[in-house]
Amino acid sequence: MKYFRIFEIAYLVIAIISFVEVFKTWSEDRNRAYLFLIFGVFSAFMFFFRRYYRNKFSNRNKQ
Which pTM was predicted? Predict the structure, then answer.
């Protein structure tokens, strides 16, 4: 189960880095900023998706 938690944190870190890049490159290169925005939203979605299913799986095993 620790591996699943590590991958969740990795998705969160990727999302944070992507959003920082969006703010840094927004005025310089909009196409690159949009690309990082898509990566950030997808990474944030994957973080919450994996966290939900990890919690659901661990709660099912406890019962």
Answer: 0.85
Tokens of 45: 């979605």
Amino acid at 47: F
pLDDT tens, position by position, 19-46: 999 999 999 999 999 999 999 999 999 9
DSSP string, the chain: -HHHHHHHHHHHHHHHHHHHHHHHHTTT-HHHHHHHHHHHHHHHHHHHHHHHHHHHHHHHHH-
Question: How many whole angstroms separate alpha carbon 13 and alpha carbon 29?
Answer: 23
